[in-house]
Amino acid sequence: MSLLAQTQEVPTSLGNDPLWISIIKAVVIFGFLVVTVLLTIWAERRIVARMQQRLGPNRVGPGGVLQGLADGIKLALKEDIRPAGIDKWVYLLAPILSVVPAFMAFAVIPFGPTVTIGGREVALQLTDIPVSVLFILAMSSLGVYGIVLAGWSSGSTYPLLGALRSAAQIISYEVAMGLSLVGVFLYAGSLSTSEIVAQQHDQWYVVTLFPSFFVYAISAVGETNRAPFDLPEAESELVAGFHTEYSSLKFALFFLAEYINMVTVSALATTLFLGGWRPPPIPGISDLDYGVFPVIWFLLKVITFIFGFIWLRGTLPRLRYDQFMQLGWKILVPFSLGWLMIVATARTVVRESNESADGNNNLFRYGLIAVAIVVAALLFWPAGDSDEEPARV
Question: Which residues contact 269 (CB under 8 A, 6 or more apart)?
Answer without folding.
Answer: 213, 216, 217, 220, 305
